[in-house]
Amino acid sequence: MCALGRGGHKKTRDDDPERRCIATGEVQPKAGLIRFVVGPDDMVVPDLLEKLPGRGIWVAADRAALELAVKKRLFARGAKRAVQMPDDLVDRIEAGLLRRVVDGISLARKAGRAVAGFEKVKGWLATGEATVLMQASDGSERGKTKLRPPSETGAFIGCLTSSELGLAFGREHVIHGALAAGGLTTRVVEDAAKLSGVRKNDGGSAPVKGTKTT
């Protein structure tokens, strides 16, 4: 299980399978990479679920790395054949990750594993029920400093706007949220870490020590 620091950076498991990024050349745990495959029409397709058939091509979940892979046409090298790419490939990846994060939080809420609102989040943090603190990137910095990530995990998600976080909770805007351990929390944290790297503007700040959230 990975965890997020305040900057949205991911802490990964030591036993996580590793893959090589075609843009940076670095080998790293695949939890921090995005998988791509080439479809029958030779079109590069992001495989966010990592379930599509075909040879996997991996790129770090970092906007600069993704843009470099597109600019230098590194997917063709990884696929070892000519490929086609949509002009808005990186934006599509961001949109897909955002949907996964919002949907994951929404499902966690329906399962009773997510709450929103300053007082509820504060209560969960006090009792230790919260393993992940979520705060809107466009929320008041002064207000956000009144809550700290769980001391045992340091897990924090700060890459969503108040309207995006609100969408997950069925409200217009949400500034503070929290996730309990188990359920979809692992998936939400990992997807949020990737989204944080892909987004142009990330709402995180200084990293906080993080450990496992399950």
Question: What report would you give on this structure?
Answer:
This protein has 214 residues and is α+β, with helices and mostly antiparallel strands. The chain has 7 helices and 11 strands. Helix 3 crosses helix 6 and helix 3 (89-110) runs antiparallel to helix 7. The longest helix has 22 residues, at 89-110. The termini are close together. Residues 1-13 and 204-214 have low confidence and may be disordered.
Give a short summary of the structure.
The protein contains seven helices and eleven strands. By secondary structure, the chain is an alpha+beta fold.
Mean pLDDT: 88
Shape annotation: elongated
Based on CA atoms alone, the radius of gyration comes out at: 17 Å
Termini separation comes to 7 Å
Low-confidence stretches: 1-13, 204-214
Strand order of the largest sheet: 8-11-9-10
**Percentage of residues in DSSP E strands:** 15-25%
How many β-strands, per DSSP?
11
How do the helices and strands line up, and which of them pair or pack?
Blueprint: E1 3-4, E2 10-11, E3 18-20, E4 27-29, E5 33-38, E6 44-46, E7 57-60, H1 63-71, H2 74-79, H3 89-110, E8 114-116, H4 118-127, E9 130-135, H5 141-144, E10 155-157, H6 162-169, E11 176-180, H7 185-198
Parallel strand pairs: 9-10
Antiparallel strand pairs: 1-2, 3-4, 5-6, 5-7, 8-11, 9-11
